[in-house]
Amino acid sequence: MSPLSRRELLGTGAGLVIAFYVPRPARAEAMRPKAKTDPNAFVRIAPDETVTVELAHSEMGQGNWTGLAMLVAEELDCDWSKIRVEHAIAAPAYAHLEFGTMGTGGSSSMRSEFDRYREVGAMARDMLVRAAAQKWKTSAKKLRTENGFVLHGTEKLSYGQLADAAMQLSPPKEVTLKKPSEWKYIGQQIRRLDSPEKITGKAKFGMDVQFEGLRTALVARAPVFGGKVRSFDASRAKAIKGVEQVVQVPSGVAVVANNFWSAKLGRDALAVQWDNGPAVDSEKLFASYRELAQKPGDEAAKPKGDVDAALTKAVKKIEAVYEAPYLAHATMEPLNCTVKPSGDGCEIWVGTQFQQVDQAAAAKILGIPVEKVTLHTPFLGGGFGRRGSPRSDFVSEAVQVAKAAGVPVKTVWTREDDLHGGFYRPAFLHRVQAGIDAQGNIVGWKHTAVGQSILKGTMFAGMMKDGIDPSSVEGIVDSPYLEGVKATQVTLHTTENAVPVHFWRSVGHTHTAFAVETMIDELAQAASQDPLSFRLRALSGKPRHAAVLKAVAQLAGWGTPLLKGRGRGLALHESFKSIVAECAEVSVEDGEIRVHKVSAAIDCGLAVNPLAIAAQVQGSIVYGLTAALYGKITLDDGKVVQSNFHDYRMLRLPQMPHIRVALVESDAKMGGVGEPATPPIVPAVANAVFALTGKRLRRLPLELA
Amino acid sequence: MQLEVNGTVREVDADGEMPLLWVLRDVLGYTGTKYGCGMAQCGACTVHLDGKAVRSCVLPVSAAAGKKITTIEGLSPDGTHPVQLAWRDVDVVQCGYCQSGQIMSAAALLAQKPNPTDEEIDLAMAGNVCRCGTYQRVREAIRKAAGGEPGAARSSK
Description:
heterodimer; A: 705 residues; alpha+beta; five-stranded mixed β-sheet; 19 helices; 22% strand; B: 157 residues; 5 helices; 5 strands; 32% helix
């Protein structure tokens, strides 16, 4: 196989540098037959010694910009200071090895790429060494590499000097990767590579895309989900200075101006009459969910034993209903997408988690081949799932706007648009009946979940089995607490309404962990057992889980005296192949719950960059804590009540608890770290409030009054 | 109207009511200052006006005329302001979108109070939202920039 140039590979324009390309390793090719005609371009070495790593995933804060570069550097043996990273352009070569399309989600960047990015580094190193062997007319076996150089006795050649010659060589069919004992970067605390540009304002997010002739559009959308434009009057909007066009698109009416402010004033002045959709109302919705939960739904997992008989025989039985509202992602960078029609194609800049899905959606709208859509990924100002849209909702809209306006347009959402815009974490209700025997063993668990499906009707609908969306019941059907329980029944009522729902950091686990772990705490109380001892008993036979629990107990000083007015609560949850336990220490001040300290322990298997893992655990806890204390999107007669950060409250620095993180080493397969620390914080706080006040909080957000 | 941004006087043709944020971004091309809420609720748009931290998304540009405006691009020529150095050292950033505003708020605080108490840090930074949840490292970095020991982050009570 001859190496292809970047231009040939990706069909992009100028800017070709002298470089060489490493295709996917032979082993992976065998698994994915398409790869042969579709080789990869993951690393580029230039004569100026820079090593550029092409990122197949989106950097949205989680740190894969640094983490994936570490994997390449580990095997390439290059100089870390010469590493550069860029988001790969949308192309099949960069498809997620499990998703089959480019994607960033499911806390999977590091674990899905652990082999591929290391192999790419090893292949590049092999080619450099062979190029050096040719120059020195010696055997490659006699050479070694160090920090960006190939060495031969006292002689050395830099990777930059060898890049040209190396690109003429065929990639090796096989490479041998370093043993863990030889690792230089993996396992080390490595600071982020994107800090310098992010602390100087130089980092370019989608919102920062600017070029001559680019216009800004704001879209007026239906105030009630499912609504349509009946008619509109643009005369006042067009009178605003800077407003150039007002165009109708499928989702509403777009005001196109030569800057954001004019577009906003124009949209404010727009008069639109809407045909509203059906009016969803949060109160009525939950009333209907409570009613539905009285009867079992569709079987979500194979039932075990006779749960009704087990519950009848139980020494103690608890029945409780847990409720979780709709939640918006509220990424700090509001949604935006820049579309530039050019000749017979189009160029797009968008902070997305699904590059090829968006690319295909754009091509379909424009009626052009996918290859004619060049999609660039700038930095993402937060994603949390919102920027991975199976329906390409905000990208499709931006393409429609540019198509209707006939000029390059950046479609920007205001914060109000973002909070009103749907694609929320679905509202869910869980009714759980559980019983214990005299020793405190769980003998029966009957669980009825009620809520909308995220996957139904999307390109991921194939992941559903027998009408069950796994994301509705994840964290219940695979709960480590239920594995050893002899009588269980988990059923699901999948509801439908006009409110679009979506992946939200840790997806179904956000509400299932709350239900399961609060019930576990209720059972511990019913058994009159210490919450830690009760959990350890329930997890006997699960040594990894027990180790994580013990680690968090030690970190938190579980069982040691607390300051007056403080309470501690525990929770453990497994998601994305990682196990996280958290202990929250709370007080009540002026009727509000205040979280002072959080201890967290995580077993994610191999820890590639502990500094990044600690950051993700801290950040995930803040994300979950914000939801636990404040998070709620409410619909009142079809309209979303909350509109901006004054009424969709965020955790801020004064409310920030001190978080300590323990990494629990294990040789388990690598798990994710971007999401798994979010689910347990919600029940940990609720359980701490119970320990302090005796009040069991079963509805989110957690409110005492 | 004339605006002095990062030490350079620029002639600007804009409506006096237009928020400073959009003049900086859309008219002058300083994209380091971010839009997050448009109502002074998140702090992503924080810049310095005569050395004081202000939310540029609600400040009419006419109110900035005749004053010294400093944006993240002008905080230091090369990213070596003590706050920026501490930010790198403590590895604060995640997505990075709010960080221009966080850094501008922190720099304004330290200019006024070189050795702030925990409560003063809380107060000065309460207006800056970070959805990635970098707050603990923000606290550590501010203490470090102030000459304190990093890693000694305590809860304020």
